[in-house]
Design a protein that fits this description.
- By secondary structure, this protein is of the alpha/beta class.
- It has 4 domains: 1-103, Globin-like, CATH 1.10.490; 107-359, Tetratricopeptide repeat domain (Serine Threonine Protein Phosphatase 5, Tetratricopeptide repeat), CATH 1.25.40; 365-546, 3-Layer(aba) Sandwich (Rossmann fold), CATH 3.40.50; 612-785, Nucleotide cyclase, GGDEF domain (Alpha-Beta Plaits, 2-Layer Sandwich).
- 53% of the residues lie in helices and 13% in strands.
- Strand 15 and strand 16 (776-785) form a beta hairpin.
- The longest helix has 24 residues, at 17-40.
Length: 790
C-alpha cells in the first residue's frame, strides 16, 4: 500500500523578510545540531560517504554545503514556519519595542497597493517600501506584479516597472496583462521598436483585444514622431490611425477613441476628428456622473475631456479639464507625461502656444547637481567655510522651488551635495545618488572631513531615503582619480535618460565659485562638460556668497572694535575662522597652476592622456559555435573570419585590439566609436555566408559594450599597450549573457551615450540581468542602430 502524504495547507502563506531571516538562522542551526550528533556518534569528515568507516562529506560548515543541500534545509525550516502560521501560531521577538512580523496573502498585498494607487498617497517611496517588505517564497498569482507594474508606470518609473513585470512573467509567461504592461513600460522608456515587436507578436498570435491593438497603435504613433524620413513617417502615422480606429470600433473605449480623433486631426481630417471627439466627450461626461471608481479612472476621464476640448476648438475648457486632471494626478508623472504628449501635439497642429499647454500639466523638471565640498580644516584659502552652510542651503532650496523640480541627481559629499539632497528631501522629491567609488572609501574621502561634525549621519539618512544609489567604480586609486569625472558623466546621463522618459526639461545646477578647479571630476570641469552638452547651466555663485559673508564679518569686527573689544576677542566672538580672518579683503584665489588652467580650458577630459587612468569605451566579443570547428577549419577561420574583422578595424580609431582563442577585446577613445563599430561588426558577421569559406554556417558573435576608468599600461610580457582594471572584467561579464547576433551594453555605456546625445544608435532597456560567473545583477541595454529614416 502506497502512503499518501497530507501536509498542512500552506500555499496561502507568504513569509516576510523577518521570517526568512529566521528561517536562515534555523536552517544553519539544524545543520550544526545534525553535525554535532554525528561527531558525537564517532563520524568524521570524508570526501565520500562511507557507512563502514563512518565518513560523511557534509560534516562541514553550512556555507560549504552544496547549494542543493542548503536549499533543502531552508525549505524544510520555511515549510515548518509556514505550517505554524497556517495553524494560527506566530513567532514574536523578545524585545517588546520591535514591531511584530506579519504575513500577507497575495490578494491582501494587491489590495494594499491598489488602495495606494487610488489615493493621494501614491508615491515611489511607499511602493518601494512595500515591495521591500514582502519577499515571497512561491508566488500564487500574477495580480501583485500587475498592480506593482501599473503603479510604477503611473509614477513615471518605466524601468522599475519593466523589472517588476519581467519578474512576474518568469512565473506566468503567458499572462496577457503582464505582457501588455511590459510593452507599455518599454514604450515609455524609449524602447519603441522592441515594444512594437512584442505587440506585433501578440497580435499575430491571435490577441485582437482593444488593449493590445491600442498599445500597438501607440508604438506606431511613437515611431511616426521619431521618423525623419517623410515616407516612413507617413506610413507609421497611417498604421497608428488604423489601429486606433480598429480598437475603438471593437469596444468604443474613450482612450482609443480620443487617440483616433487626435491622429485624424493630424492627418487633416477635421470632420472625422471632431465627430469622434464629440462622441468621446459625451461618454466621458456620462461616466463622470457615475459612482466614483477611483482617482486613476477620474484622471483619465478628465484628461480625455481636455483633449476633446482642444480638438473641438475650446481652449478655455481644455485648460479647465486638464487642470482638474493634473490636480488629481499629482505625482503620477508617467500619466501626466503621456497626456501632455498628446496635448502638445494638438497644440502644434492647431498653432497654439505649446509653452502654455505644457504648463497645464505641471510635470516637474529633472535637476542634475554638482557643487563644492565644505572646506577641510587645513584649507589655506577659504572657499566654502562651515559658516556658509545655512546660507548655501537656503540658496539651493529657493532655486529648486523656483525651478519647480522634484527629481534630483547628485553625488553625496559633505557640503553642497548633501545640502542639495536635503533640500530635495524637504521638497518631497526623488533622490538619485551616484557615488564615484565604494561607500566606505567615499565616506573616508568625501564625507568625514570635519572633526566632530555630523555629516556622516546625514549621509547615512540620505542613502536610506534615496530612490536609487549607483556606485560608479569600485575603488579610487589616486588623488584626482578619473572616477570623479566618470561618476559625473554617469550622473548627467542617467538624469537625461529620466528627463527624456518624462518628456521634461533637464537642468544642470552647480554651487560653484566660478574659478578653475583642481582637476577632472571637480565642479569646474563638470560645469565645463555641461556647457558642451546643453545651452544653459544654473549656477549658485559661491564666491559671491563668501564675499557677502566676509563683508558682514568684517563689519561686525569693526563694530566690535569700536565698542572697545580687542581684535582677538572680537574675532572669537564672531566665530570667524583664522583662515577666514586672513582672507578678509582678499577674495581672489591664488593663480591657478598650469595644469589646472589646461584642464579647465579643455572639457574633453575623457580623451586626454593626462594620467595612466583613462575613461575608455570597451568591447568584448565571443564567437558563437567556435567549438564546432574541425581541426582543418582553424586556418580558414583565422584567414577569413578574423581577416574580415581585421579589415573592418582599419576604419575605426581603436586604441588597442587583442584576440585570444575565439574572443575579441578592443578599447576605443569614445563611446560613439565603440557603439558604431560594434553594430558594424554585428552586421558584417551576419552578412557573410561562412559556409562558402569552408566554415560552419552558424558562426556569429555576442558583443558587449561598457565604458569606465581603466589603467593604461604596457604589458611586461608582450611589450604591447594594454588596458586593465575592474571595468575590463565588468565588460567581460556582459558578453556571455548577450544573445548571438546582438550587442548588449551596461548602464554606464547607455548613460554616457545619453549625456553626449548620440543619435547614431539607441540603447533599449532589457532589464536587470544576472551577468556571468555570479558577478551580480545589473541594468542592461540592447544597443541597436536607429532605423533608416528614424
Amino acid at each position: 500500500m502506497q502512503y499518501q502524504p497530507h501536509p498542512i495547507e500552506t500555499a496561502h502563506i507568504t513569509l516576510t523578510a523577518e521570517y526568512l531571516k529566521l528561517a536562515e538562522i534555523l536552517a544553519r542551526n539544524s545543520h550544526d545540531v545534525w553535525v554535532q550528533q554525528r561527531l558525537d556518534d564517532g563520524w568524521r569528515y570524508g570526501p565520500q560517504y562511507d557507512l563502514t568507516q563512518r565518513y560523511h562529506p557534509y560534516l562541514v560548515n553550512y556555507n560549504d554545503l552544496p547549494d542543493r543541500e542548503q536549499h533543502s534545509r531552508r525549505v524544510t525550516v520555511s515549510e515548518t514556519l509556514k505550517a505554524l502560521l497556517s495553524l494560527g501560531y506566530r513567532v514574536e521577538v523578545r524585545d517588546p519595542t520591535s514591531p511584530p512580523s506579519l504575513f500577507l496573502e497575495d490578494q491582501d498585498l494587491a489590495v494594499m497597493v491598489q488602495g495606494l494607487t487610488r489615493s493621494a498617497e501614491l508615491n515611489l517611496s511607499s511602493l518601494l517600501d512595500l515591495r521591500r517588505e514582502i519577499i515571497r517564497i512561491q508566488p500564487r498569482s500574477s495580480d501583485i506584479y500587475r498592480t506593482f507594474g501599473d503603479a510604477l508606470l503611473q509614477l513615471g518609473e518605466p524601468l522599475m516597472a519593466y523589472d517588476a513585470l519581467a519578474e512576474g512573467l518568469r512565473y506566468w509567461p503567458q499572462d496577457l496583462r503582464l505582457q501588455q504592461l511590459l510593452a507599455l513600460a518599454l514604450a515609455r522608456s524609449g524602447s519603441t521598436v522592441t515594444a512594437n515587436q512584442l505587440l506585433v507578436q501578440l497580435v499575430e498570435a491571435g490577441q485582437q483585444d482593444e488593449e493590445t491593438i491600442g498599445l500597438l497603435a501607440r508604438t506606431h504613433k511613437d515611431l511616426w514622431q521619431q521618423a525623419t524620413d517623410p515616407a516612413i513617417a507617413a506610413m507609421q502615422l497611417e498604421l497608428a490611425l488604423q489601429r486606433y480606429q480598429q480598437a475603438y470600433q471593437q469596444n468604443g473605449s474613450v482612450w482609443t477613441g480620443i487617440n483616433a480623433a487626435t491622429l485624424a486631426l493630424v492627418k487633416g481630417d477635421l470632420t472625422q476628428a471632431q465627430t469622434l471627439a464629440q462622441r468621446v466627450r459625451s461618454r466621458c461626461l456620462e461616466q463622470l456622473t457615475a459612482p466614483v471608481l477611483g482617482r486613476g479612472e477620474d484622471y483619465w476621464r478628465l484628461a480625455t475631456l481636455g483633449e476633446a476640448a482642444l480638438i473641438l476648438g475650446n481652449c478655455a475648457e481644455a485648460e479647465d479639464f486638464y487642470g482638474q486632471a493634473a490636480a488629481i494626478g499629482q505625482g503620477r508623472f508617467g500619466d501626466l507625461s503621456s497626456s501632455r504628449r498628446n496635448a502638445v501635439l494638438l497644440a502644434e497642429v492647431l498653432g497654439l502656444d505649446t509653452d502654455r499647454v505644457k504648463h497645464w500639466f505641471q510635470i516637474p523638471k529633472v535637476v542634475v547637481f554638482c557643487g563644492h565640498m565644505l572646506d577641510r580644516p587645513d584649507r589655506p584659502q577659504p572657499r566654502f567655510p562651515a559658516a556658509l552652510e545655512g546660507t548655501v542651503y537656503r540658496a539651493i532650496l529657493e532655486r529648486l522651488q523656483k525651478m519647480e523640480v522634484q527629481l534630483g541627481y547628485a553625488p553625496a559629499a559633505c557640503g553642497a551635495d548633501i545640502l542639495f539632497l536635503e533640500a530635495m528631501r524637504e521638497l518631497k522629491g526623488e533622490l538619485h545618488i551616484v557615488l564615484p567609488c565604494n561607500r566606505e572609501q567615499f565616506i573616508q574621502d568625501s564625507v568625514d572631513l570635519i572633526p566632530g561634525a555630523n555629516w556622516g549621519d546625514r549621509f547615512d539618512r540620505l542613502m536610506q531615503d534615496a530612490t536609487e544609489v549607483v556606485i560608479a567604480s569600485g575603488n579610487k586609486l589616486e588623488e584626482n582619480d578619473v572616477v570623479y569625472e566618470y561618476s559625473h558623466r554617469l550622473l548627467y546621463g542617467l538624469a537625461k535618460i529620466r528627463a527624456d522618459q518624462l518628456g521634461t526639461e533637464l537642468i544642470p545646477l552647480a554651487v560653484w565659485d566660478g574659478k578653475p578647479g583642481d582637476g577632472p571630476g571637480g565642479t569646474a570641469s563638470t560645469v565645463a562638460n555641461w556647457r558642451r552638452w546643453t545651452d544653459h547651466v544654473e549656477v549658485i555663485d559661491l564666491a559671491a556668497i563668501l564675499r557677502e559673508h566676509q563683508a558682514r564679518s568684517a563689519l561686525s569686527l569693526d563694530t566690535a572694535l569700536q565698542n572697545g573689544q580687542t581684535a582677538a576677542s572680537a574675532a572669537f566672538g564672531n566665530a570667524i575662522d583664522p583662515p577666514l580672518m586672513n582672507a578678509i579683503g582678499h577674495s581672489a584665489s591664488p593663480p591657478a597652476s598650469p595644469l589646472a588652467s589646461s584642464l579647465a580650458s579643455n572639457p574633453a577630459l575623457a580623451t586626454c592622456d593626462i594620467s595612466s587612468r583613462e575613461i575608455r569605451a570597451l568591447l568584448f566579443a565571443d564567437v558563437v559555435n567556435f567549438s564546432h570547428l574541425e581541426e582543418n577549419q582553424h586556418g580558414p577561420f583565422a584567414q577569413h573570419f578574423w581577416g574580415e574583422i581585421a579589415a573592418l578595424t582599419e576604419q575605426y580609431p581603436i586604441l588597442m585590439k587583442n584576440t585570444w582563442g575565439d574572443a575579441l577585446y578592443f578599447v576605443f577613445p569614445l563611446v560613439q566609436q565603440a557603439g558604431e563599430f560594434a553594430l558594424a561588426l554585428c552586421d558584417l558577421v551576419q552578412s557573410i555566408d561562412w559556409s562558402t569559406k569552408g566554415l560552419p554556417a552558424g558562426l556569429n558573435l555576442r558583443i558587449a559594450l561598457h565604458a569606465g576608468p581603466v589603467e593604461r599600461t604596457v604589458d611586461p610580457i608582450t611589450g604591447q599597450l594594454n588596458y586593465v582594471g575592474m571595468h575590463v572584467s565588468h565588460t567581460a561579464r556582459i558578453e556571455p549573457i548577450t544573445p548571438p547576433g546582438k550587442v548588449y551594453a551596461s548602464q554606464a555605456f547607455a548613460a554616457i551615450a545619453a549625456s553626449e546625445d548620440l543619435r547614431q544608435f539607441t540603447c533599449d532597456y532589457v532589464g536587470q540581468m544576472p551577468w556571468a560567473k555570479r558577478y551580480g545583477t545589473f541594468p542592461t541595454y540592447h544597443v541597436r542602430r536607429v532605423l533608416a529614416g528614424m
